[in-house]
């Protein structure tokens, strides 16, 4: 009888302890990377740093005309508004990290959302698009 009373008294305490011990720690909640969060926004400096890493693909979702006018070195172009957009995305390697950008960051964010729905896990959007890239003084290829 005493054991049952003791168990009833400490059961709520055990529940709290179990919940707290299962909660993520501060280290587990560290700053997200291209590997851990998808999609996420990056500053031009972060985007440039990630572009230099191996196994990343720079994806420009602007029109072909915008792409020809100026682009990031090594970027591939798949027009977000193109009729074959989803088909061309489906042909990409989902295991790679995709650094996605457009002119202002709107189309690229929508592209990241679409890619996430398609099973791409490592997505980074250039916040502010190439406008923010240019304001940061970073280079474009012609």
Task: Describe the structure in your own words.
By secondary structure, the chain is of the alpha/beta class. It has a single domain, classed as Rhodanese-like domain (Oxidized Rhodanese, domain 1, 3-Layer(aba) Sandwich). It has helices at residues 2-22, 44-51, 64-69, 85-90, 106-117, 129-135, and strands at 40-42, 56-60, 76-77, 97-101, 123-126. Strand 2 (56-60), helix 3 and strand 3 (76-77) form a beta-alpha-beta unit.
Overview in brief:
By secondary structure, the protein is of the alpha/beta class. 42% of the residues lie in helices and 13% in strands.
- Give the assembly state of these chains: single chain
With strands numbered from the N-terminus, the spatial order across the biggest sheet is 1-5-4-2-3
CATH superfamily, by name, is Rhodanese-like domain
Shape, principal axes of CA atoms? globular
Mean pLDDT: 83
Number of domains: 1
Radius of gyration: 22 Å
Give the class from helix and strand content and strand pairing: alpha/beta
Name of the CATH class: Alpha Beta
Question: How many beta-strand segments?
Answer: 5
**Strand portion:** 5-15%
Could you say what the CATH architecture is?
3-Layer(aba) Sandwich
Low-confidence stretches: 14-37
What CATH calls the topology is Oxidized Rhodanese, domain 1
First-last Cα distance: 83 Å
- Could you state the order of secondary-structure elements as H and E? HEHEHEHEHEH
């Amino acid at each position: 009888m005493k054991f049952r009373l003791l168990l009833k008294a400490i059961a709520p305490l055990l529940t709290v302890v179990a919940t707290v011990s299962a909660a993520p720690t501060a280290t587990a909640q560290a700053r997200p990377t291209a590997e851990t969060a998808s999609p996420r926004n990056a500053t031009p400096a972060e985007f440039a740093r990630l572009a230099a890493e191996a196994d990343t693909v720079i994806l420009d979702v602007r029109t072909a005309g915008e792409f020809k006018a100026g682009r990031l070195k090594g970027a591939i172009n798949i027009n977000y508004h193109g009729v074959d957009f989803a088909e061309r995305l489906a042909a990409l390697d989902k295991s790679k990290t995709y650094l996605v950008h457009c002119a202002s960051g709107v189309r690229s964010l929508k592209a990241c959302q679409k890619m996430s729905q398609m099973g791409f896990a490592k997505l980074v959007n250039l916040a502010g698009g190439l406008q923010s890239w240019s304001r940061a003084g970073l280079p474009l290829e012609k």
